[in-house]
Amino acid sequence: MAVLGQWRYFPKTHIVAISIIILVIIFAVGKQSNHTQKREVNTVTIASDAPLASVASLDPWQQTELKPGDNLSRIFTRFSLSAADALAIAASDPKRVLSLQPGQVIKWQKSDSNNVTRLRIETSPLIAHEFERDIDGTYKYALDEKVADRRPKFAHTTINASLFLDGAKQDIPQSILIELAGLFGWDIDFALDIRPGDEFSLIYEELFLEGERIGFGNILIANFVNRGREITAIRYEDGKGDAQYYDPSGHSMRKEFLRNPIDFARISSRFNLKRKHPVLNKFRAHRGTDYAAPTGTPIKSTGDGKVIFAGRKGGFGNCVIIQHGSRYQTLYAHLSKFNRNARKGRRVKQGQVIGYVGSTGLATGPHLHFEFRVDGVHRDSLRIKLPKSRSIESSKRVAYKAEAERMIEWLNSLRADQLAGG
After folding, report:
1. Do 122 and 107 contact (CB within 8 A), yes or no?
2. Which residues partner with 347 through β-bridges?
3. pLDDT tens for residues 174-205?
């Protein structure tokens, strides 16, 4: 019965051909046994690897790349696939596999009646989710997960123009450069501190699948020399699989606060208690730092905290104030609009977008006015020494330092080899 249930997926030409073969066999056997008036019925068995598998393999795969707003129902409607199948697949969906995202690829095979026999959702080059139709119309789910080959890649760059321009000249991917800037973002203001002659070295992972590079993995170690100051970050994974970055002594690279709430913006006005206000045209203390940037540029919370104000606030225009623990407070003013998650009473994470650059309130042009307060007193965010987060646990310190020494030696060896090679 299992075989017969699959006949509806066969092309009609195959069904006709197999039927003729069966009739010829029955006729021949019946003719030979007429004198005994005994009729024998031969059973034709279709092997699992012959014509059923070959017919299934002939079904062409169709595919589409998901667009913003797409879901399974819309995809099935767009390509005239069975709506009942969409419901059946959704019913077998484990752990929200069908939370589809733009850019993902969805593939399917179908029968002549537009029933989906197989569905494949590729969320990345390494992970795909497959659904296969059973005889009763239900679907079985399987995870297709591949393991990439991780190969370390060394790079060294001297900065003459900018981190991104000079890094790109050394074929360092943009995603790695963004991760590098985020890694050192607690110690270096990339809008203010970078100078020609600064340099950095790093070892990062390239991901390969079947000999083809499919992407990039983690930064394993990075060293940045900024204005003569040397900073090293080392990736360390504990026994539970959790990974963080630490300096050679075991202090976390992650501080309690980011140095800069906007990536690569220009500082247009510094902390100055005797500055002349550009709109009011009179001397008025400027208790913050202004970052000039185009309208709509994302603004990030510089630390974990709770939004205690989000709304219109006099000359500040659209403004967000975040409380960080009991001592620290940050203010973000002149926003064009708020991020929907930055509402009063909500908790935000460090690096989370809370709003977008604008020119609301007393502003001559689009920029962010940023204030940093300690115990209610305004402090210069560019000069204050930021509090550090916790260091590596004492029980792991010996193992970490041994690993750190090995990684630093590896990086220095590769850098020396490159310099020696010219």
Report:
1. yes
2. 306
3. 999 999 988 888 788 777 788 999 999 999 99
Note the pTM of the prediction, 2 decimals. 0.59
Q: Is residue 6 predicted with pLDDT exceeding 70?
A: no
Please give the structure tokens belonging to residue 333.
């003013």
288, 334 contact by CB (below 8 A): no
Q: What is the mean pLDDT of residues 201-219?
A: 94
At residue 124's C-alpha, the angle toward residues 109 and 144, to 5°, is 60
274 falls in which pLDDT band (50, 70, 90)?
A: low
Contact between 295 and 356 under an 8 Å Cβ cutoff? The reply is yes
Place of tokens 């992650």: 254
In Å, how far are 9, 277, 355, 358 from 120, measured between CA atoms?
A: 19, 60, 37, 43
> What's residue 240's pLDDT?
75
Q: State the amino acid at position 307 in one-letter form.
A: V
7-21, 45-59, 132-146, range with the lowest pLDDT: 45-59
Query: What are the two backbone dihedrals, phi and then psi, of residue 321, each rounded to the nearest 5 degrees?
Result: -120, 130
Domains of the chain, start order: 4-56 (no CATH), 59-145 (3.10.450.350), 149-246 (3.10.450.350), 266-379 (2.70.70.10)
20 within 8 A of 36, measured Cβ to Cβ: no
- For the chain, the distance separating the N- and C-terminal CA atoms, rounded to the nearest angstrom, is 73
Both structure tokens of 298: 């994302």
